[in-house]
Design goal:
The complex is a heterodimer of chains A (about 400) and B (about 350). Chain A is α+β, with helices and mostly antiparallel strands and about 400 residues long. Helix content of chain A is about 50%, strand content about 15%. Chain A contains 13 helices and eight strands. In chain A, the strands form two sheets. In chain A, strands 1-4-5-8 form a four-stranded mixed β-sheet. In chain A, strands 2-3-7-6 form a four-stranded antiparallel β-sheet, with no helix packed on it. In chain A, a hairpin with a 2-residue loop joins strand 2 (about 140-145) and strand 3 (about 145-155). Chain A is globular. Chain B is α+β, with helices and mostly antiparallel strands. Chain B has eleven helices and ten strands. The chains are: A alpha+beta (about 400), B alpha+beta (about 350).
Chain lengths: ~400, ~350
């Protein structure tokens, strides 16, 4: 078992040595969107050719790696500073897990191979008035014959301008209690009536989008799960999904982010002294390494364990988000003014790109979306610890 | 392979249940009777079968240690099982060592290893020396905060022999020239002693089977991981108690646990306990398997868990409100124990310094 893993590690290392594009960071810094998309799709196909694109999928759809193998794969990709699959993230994780657990055979056959061929997905969940209170969403889907007619507005749809398909939550029963009147749809982004507008974020990038939906027609066979069961479908698929995405991100943080932080601290600063010579700096590094080690063990357990606790995914999300924030904050502090001159980070890089100030600013993209840290704490308190619920809002 | 893991996890569940039950019966203010501990087989968990031991590993001892932390229990079990048995297992076999190991397992002897509780910068160092004289080998040196030294009937003192080898000197606590002074501490559940040896005649000078410096490092790592287990256990208890209290205590017409400020503080406690549990599990595993990364895992588990335990017990006192500040509530017992554990066998800063040595390879 261990011997097989060691052999696998060697083969991934050899693959990385010959396949990770040299100088991609420099080449991908400040590039136009089209070049980013081209690069991402080409890299996806490279990984796919090696069997590394969707290791977490079931074998019959092109995956089938054990958790231990996935950890080896992700740690080596990070250690060799391979580009991340940023563009296909929602496609290979959220879309695939939704289709696999709640989709019809027809929907799976239609989309899973297409995702491997480069089909890009976006998540259309949040709305201007439905953020933390996601179940308050107002976008409506009105049944008309064999189709639904959708009207409304989605927000924070990451990468929507490049998306071919959208995972859409819309209200199908306006009279039902808010969580029981929502349905889950697969929406073809080429359908007439869709308008996508990028929103500029704190980092200066614009990959979050608004999606305006104006009398958009969705055929009824694009419904996922039963009508009005969309909230449950979303909860089930996304909870299970969390561990899979975190496994990769935790290995990145350990083998990429933390390693760069140590390298940063080993370089002489403006006064000629190395941050590593300051015991306050090494103390914080050791504390961060300890926390990253804990995170990696936590993620491995979450993915390997088929009996997840009701708040396990929230614990990992909260802990990762805030650890990423502490780590990039420290990177920005140590890197000093020089880090403020890095105005762009390389496209396709991870959440810790080494452009520490932008990484730090960008870390709020983890503590706010996908359930804010406050929402996660409430979930952990109520579902994990069984504390009394908040009095119901009106 | 998985069935073996299942066997172990069943064994751990059983050990845990028995230990929790026995510790609960003993009550908060008394130590478990030593005979009872010996009869339960806890002292021989790591001893070979030939010495009436169970041939188990540190992982099983760790289960007991965590329960002792949960109960904030008194008594020298950690000192004897972790360090006493640990040291004896590392020594070259011989009639003296074998007899002492057998007596320790049966509960007839209560040997304590004289390790300075402060935690030394160099884990392979010892403050004791042996001089060879016509009167036989004599021991000199001082150590403070030696866990459970006052109740020991044998002292095993790591010392530097005249030829430069680290050895274990077996001394009688009542020997001439040896003074063991109790050092009372705020944490009333613990017992420490200062050990001063001034030309003390040794019962025996025992040699390590392997590299003596490595052996001494291992003992200190075991000591650190054992304290981390204790802090993990006490953190778990305090989280449970706080959640239970927040679920019944009412203010402003609501259970206080329904207030976000309280709920989120509990959530943070759970996150830290969860991370600590993973770090402690990894450290225990690598101690049990004598793995090459054992020192790193021990430093991580000790620094993180023992710092977290102080925050968690402090938050437990805060969330129990005025009630939590009373002597009667008992929260203070845990806060004091957590604060002591943080300083025992190396501060978080010391363990992080050890980790950080790896960032600048010389």
């Amino acid at each position: 078992m261990t011997k097989d893993l060691d052999e696998f590690r060697v083969s991934v290392r050899e693959w990385c040595a010959t396949h990770v594009p040299k100088d991609w960071r420099q080449a991908q810094t400040g590039v136009p969107e089209e070049e980013f998309v081209r690069f991402q799709k080409a890299w996806f196909q490279e990984l796919r050719g090696a069997g590394f694109a969707v290791p977490h999928w079931p074998k019959e759809w092109g995956g089938g790696m054990t958790v231990a193998e996935q950890i080896v794969l992700y740690s080596e990709l990070a250690a060799h500073d391979a580009p991340r699959l940023v563009l296909a993230f929602v496609s290979i994780h959220h879309a695939a897990s939704t289709l696999l657990s709640a989709g019809t055979d027809e929907q799976r056959r239609r989309h899973l191979p297409a995702i491997l061929d480069g089909e890009i997905w976006v998540q259309g969940f949040s709305e201007p008035d439905a953020g933390s209170d996601l179940a308050a969403l107002k976008t409506t889907a009105r049944k008309e014959g064999d189709a639904y007619v959708v009207n409304g507005q989605k927000l924070w749809a990451s990468g929507a301008m490049h998306a071919d398909w959208c995972l859409l939550l819309a209200r199908t029963d306006p009279d039902a209690p808010k969580r029981r009147g929502i349905s889950y749809f697969l929406l073809d982004m080429a359908t007439p009536g869709i308008d996508v507008r990028p929103v500029r974020q704190a980092t200066g990038e614009s990959h979050f989008c608004e999606i305006f939906l104006n009398d958009v027609v969705i055929p009824a066979d694009q419904l996922v799960g039963p009508e009005n069961a969309g909230w449950r479908v979303a909860q089930e698929t996304l909870g299970a999904e969390r561990g899979m995405t975190m496994l990769e991100l935790a290995e990145r943080l350990g083998n990429g982010g933390f390693r760069w932080l140590v390298e940063l601290c080993a370089r002489p600063g403006p006064g000629g002294t190395r941050p590593l010579d300051d015991p306050l700096v090494t103390d914080r590094l050791a504390a961060l390494e300890t926390e990253v080690t804990g995170l990696r063990a936590l993620c491995a357990e979450l993915v390997a364990n088929d009996r997840q606790g009701p708040a396990d995914a929230s614990i990992v999300k909260l802990y990762y988000s805030e650890l990423l924030q502490r780590m990039t904050d420290f990177g920005a502090e140590v890197a000093g003014l020089a880090a403020h001159t890095e105005l762009r980070k390389p496209a396709s890089s991870g959440w810790e790109s080494g452009a520490w100030v932008l990484d730090f600013i960008g870390s709020w993209e983890w503590t706010i979306p996908g359930g804010t840290s406050e929402i996660q704490r409430t979930i952990i308190g109520e579902r994990g610890l069984g504390l009394p619920r908040e009095p119901a809002g009106v | 392979m998985s069935s073996q893991i299942d066997d172990f996890s069943e064994l751990h569940d059983e050990l845990r249940a028995v230990a929790r039950d026995m510790l609960a019966k003993a009550g908060a203010d008394a130590a478990l009777e030593w005979r009872l501990i010996a009869r339960s087989g806890w002292l021989g968990l790591e001893a070979p079968g030939a010495f009436d031991g169970a041939d188990a590993t540190f992982a099983e001892v760790a289960v007991i240690l965590r329960e002792i932390g949960r109960a904030a229990a008194r008594g020298p079990y950690p000192a004897v099982a972790v360090l006493g048995v640990g040291a004896l297992n590392l020594l070259e076999p011989g009639p003296g060592r074998d007899r002492l190991l057998r007596d320790t397992v049966s509960g007839a002897a209560l040997p304590v290893v004289v390790l300075d509780g402060e935690g030394l910068e160099d884990a392979a160092e010892t403050p004791f020396r042996v001089t060879r004289t016509p009167r036989g080998p004599l021991l000199h040196g001082t150590a403070a905060f030696v866990p459970d030294a006052p109740g020991a009937d044998r002292l095993l003192v790591p010392a530097l022999d005249q030829d430069g080898t680290t050895v274990i000197v077996d001394v009688d606590p009542r020997a001439a020239g040896l003074i063991v002074t109790e050092q009372p501490v705020v944490d009333a559940t613990r017992c420490f002693g200062r050990v001063v040896a001034d030309a003390v005649g040794a019962e025996a000078v025992l040699r390590f089977a392997g590299d003596p410096q490595h052996a001494l490092q291992c003992l200190r790592e075991r000591a650190a991981v054992a304290v981390a287990c204790d802090s993990l256990g006490l953190s778990e208890t305090m989280l449970d108690a706080t959640v239970a209290y927040a679920g019944v205590r009412e203010q402003f017409g609501r259970k206080i646990g329904s207030f976000q400020a309280v709920k989120h503080a509990c959530a943070d406690m759970l996150v830290r306990v969860t991370v600590a549990r993973k770090l402690v599990e990894a450290a225990v595993r690598s101690q049990a398997g004598d793995e090459p990364d054992a020192a790193v895992a021990a430093a991580m588990a000790k620094s993180y868990t023992c710092a977290a335990a102080v925050d968690i017990t402090g938050k437990a006192m805060q969330l129990h409100g005025g009630m939590g500040y009373t002597w009667e509530s008992g929260v203070h017992v845990y806060l004091k124990r957590a604060a002591l554990n943080r300083s025992l066998f190396g501060s978080p800063a010391l363990h992080r310094r050890r980790l950080a040595e790896r960032y600048s390879p010389r």
